Amino acid sequence: MKAPTVIGWREWVALPELGVERIKAKIDTGAATSALHVSNIRSELREAGTWLTFEVHPIQRSEVPSVAAGGWLVDERPVRNTSGKSEIRPVIETAIKLGAEQYRAEITLTRRDEMGFRMLLGRRALRRRFVVDSGRSFTYDLEK
């Protein structure tokens, strides 16, 4: 079994299936689920299930650029936000690239306008892949 990769408390990640080449993510071992800041979520019932379209805003404190993206709805889950309030969020599964590693993980879609990071990577997405060193930041370039 391969030893887990050491990452910092914040990292650059890519979401290749969503067309996001680079987004700053907070590595949050206190959160079970991962979350992505999106807007304009629309759903379309198709033969294979529910297809969601949405806009991703990868730059902190900016609505520009806006990346049109989509994914299959895999679940809707109650998630407790940072203020302690529970909300039902749609969940998609997509590829995440961090350094040389690319893997699939579930991500909840929500508005994170007031948050410092447009993406959170929770412990389910980190488990058995990464060890977090809280004294490090941006340890991996996406070009590797």
Task: List key phrases describing it.
five-stranded mixed β-barrel; 144 residues; 1 helix; 10 strands; mainly beta; two-stranded parallel ribbon; 58% strand
Topology:
Elements: E1 5-7, E2 10-15, E3 20-28, E4 34-46, E5 49-56, E6 67-80, E7 86-98, E8 101-110, E9 119-122, H1 123-126, E10 130-132
Parallel strand pairs: 1-10, 3-9, 4-8
Antiparallel strand pairs: 2-3, 4-5, 4-9, 5-6, 6-7, 7-8
In short:
This protein has 144 residues and is mainly β. The chain has one helix and ten strands, in the order E-E-E-E-E-E-E-E-E-H-E.
How does this structure look, described?
By secondary structure, the protein is an all-beta fold. 3% of the residues lie in helices and 58% in strands. It has 1 helix and 10 strands. It has one helix spanning 123-126, and strands spanning 5-7, 10-15, 20-28, 34-46, 49-56, 67-80, 86-98, 101-110, 119-122, 130-132. A 5-stranded mixed beta barrel has the order 4-5-6-7-8. The two termini are 22 Å apart. 29% of the residues are buried.
